[in-house]
Amino acid sequence: MFSTHSAGMMATFAQIVKPFGAVVAIDNAPNLDVSPLMSKSIAWHWELMFTRALHDPTSTAQHEILRQAAELVDKGILHTTMTTLIERIDAAGLRRAHADVEAGSTIGKTVLAGF
């Protein structure tokens, strides 16, 4: 996973993405400069889960997408990427989650659940 918060990350994207390729981001860094992507015509896209709801509040498309996703999960076709479940959101759970992620050995998602 790449973080757009690194100053050198755009140079890395410019180096590894093919001409006319695309990068999709789910976050945004302040003063994000995508100009290193220009010479290869690399597209930069943002994805926000609730864009439809924010800009077309009468649409039921988000409801339908979530309903279909739930159906696929129930059928066992879609599977979670969660690999670690930490049962409590407390200081110990947060320390464990942080240590796991900081170690760089996590695969999948670490989820903290419950109080």
From TrEMBL:
<protein>
    <recommendedName>
        <fullName>Zinc-binding alcohol dehydrogenase family protein</fullName>
    </recommendedName>
</protein>
<dbReference type="Pfam" id="PF13602">
    <property type="entry name" value="ADH_zinc_N_2"/>
</dbReference>
